[in-house]
Amino acid sequence: MNRISWFLVFLVLPLFADNNPYNPEKKLADMDITLFKPSKPAASFVPAVRTGNLVFLSGHVPRKPEGGYVTGKVGKDLTTAQAKDAARLTAVSLLSSLKNEIGNLQYVKRIVKVTGMVNATPSFTEHSLVINGCSDLLISIFGEKGRHARAAVGMSSLPFNFAVEIEMIVEIGDKNYCALVDAINSSERTQTFISRDQYRHPLETLTFFGIKRSMSVAEVWPGSSAWYMEVLAPYLREEGLYIAAGFDQETKSDFFKKANAKFAEKLKSKPQLFDKVKVSELAAPHKTAIAPAGTLDAILTFRNVHNWMWSKSEQDMFRAFYKALKPGGILGVIEHRAPETTDDIEAKRGYVKESYTLELAKKAGFKFVASSDINNNPKDITTYPTGVWTLPPTLRLKEKDREKYMAIGESDRFTLKFIKPKTAK
Fold first, then answer.
1. Rounded to 5 degrees, what angle do the CA atoms 164, 168, 173 make?
2. What is the set of domains in the chain, with CATH numbers?
3. pLDDT tens per residue, range 364-412
4. Which letter does DSSP use for residue 146 in this model?
5. Closest Cα partner for 50 from 103, 119, 87, 120?
6. CA separation for the pair 224, 221 (Å, rounded)
7. C-alpha span between 329 and 307 (Å, rounded)
8. Cβ atoms of 118 and 153 closer than 8 Å
9. Which residues lie below 8 Å from residue 109, measured CB to CB, with a gap of 6+?
């Protein structure tokens, strides 16, 4: 099967349709919504119960920001619009209890089910429109993760004549997911790096690749700034292993010499984060031992395939990945995406065809698992005066058309996941 044919048959999994970084608490702040400390229940129950990865939230009612509650019978004392606003307030009450229970709303993986009860007259029939006040807010805050199963029913009465009462079931991440959230939110990260989360989506990306705290993971060519190392090294520090497979330490290139020196300084700058980082070299074809053969759980590389194409070492690099991974080990590759019709077959502009990367992995022995649109950027047209480096963060043209290129953002990138077959020797 040729390169194009193999490209056409691969499976695409659009797991994350919303390309904004997942951060419900920032979304709340942007919407000027303030959560509150839940009050003690008036009856014999608790606001939330956690069992496994599910949190069951008891029935909550519409608490006003200024104090008091929304009461009255819908269809008599309250209009549908007023009751919908009450349901929205109830969603805020639910989220306040949820945050109090789990600590960080970014731990939420899915709003599973909402059950809404409306205190309504017998002739009232717009219960679903009322509970939309809650549902719409949840979707606004959590995106696709906020879309839920639901029931909306009418009641002849509710306690204390509350207008609505809503209960909710939420799925939260496992310990790996929550630890990854904490690593990404760490105050130890470089502030300018955090600003790039909107383009690089570290939570979604590393979740897609299936990186867990107990894994042995090598990042190939992390670069002198080591953007991903600031997340991966702390995340893997206690239970796993992070290997920085960097440039040739015996290089004659001034560029690589400076990069190696800068990387070494970064390791020394924060021993509390980087003291357990292992450093190796990968400079195919003469240096290919990332780690002892068959010992790594995962290898990740971000925006590097074009570099290897320049030195015509790309196939040797993929073979080195294959050798270092355990059977069943994961290879995650992110690269600037070139149009399949490009005439830049040597990636001189920094963009690489997705089909070519798929072929490199296949020839090395890997099995394709999935592709994700996490790091897609449809604004990137790829034809710039100085290639991909015209865009941020490099901005090679400096102030010339800066606003234009900042509005585009970082490059359009493909995100590919491969596996070394479990039957591999």
1. 155
2. 3-18+175-419 (3.40.50.150), 33-172 (3.30.1330.40)
3. 999 999 999 999 999 999 999 999 999 999 999 999 999 999 999 999 9
4. G
5. 103
6. 9
7. 24
8. yes
9. 53, 145, 171, 172, 173, 177
Cα 263 to Cα 48, 225, 230, 240, 320: the distances in Å are 46, 7, 12, 21, 22
With vertex at residue 79, the alpha carbon angle to CA 77 and CA 81, rounded to the nearest 5 degrees, is 145
Q: Name the β-bridge partners of 300.
A: 219, 332
pLDDT in tens, 254-305: 999 999 999 999 999 999 999 999 999 999 999 999 999 999 999 999 999 9
Both tokens of 352, joined, read 């690489």
Closest Cα partner for 106 from 30, 16, 28, 190?
28
The three-state secondary structure class of 403 is helix
Cβ-based neighbours of 323, under 8 Å, separated by 6 or more? 288, 293, 294
> What does each C-alpha distance from 278 to 11, 188, 285 come to in angstroms?
34, 20, 21
Phi, psi for residue 381 in degrees, rounded to 5? -95, -10
Which letter does DSSP use for residue 300 in this model?
E
- Residue from 94, 141, 86, 92 nearest 113 by CA: 94
* Nearest by Cα to 243 from 261, 275, 270, 218: 218
Q: 3-class SS at 152?
A: strand
The set of residues, in sequence order, having a beta carbon less than 8 Å from that of 160 and lying 6+ positions away, is 61, 69, 71
Q: Specify the pairing of strand 367-372 against strand 352-353.
A: unpaired
Rounded to the nearest 5°, which phi and psi values hold at 42?
Answer: -80, -15
ω into 202 cis (within 30 of 0): no
The Cα diameter of the chain in Å comes to 84
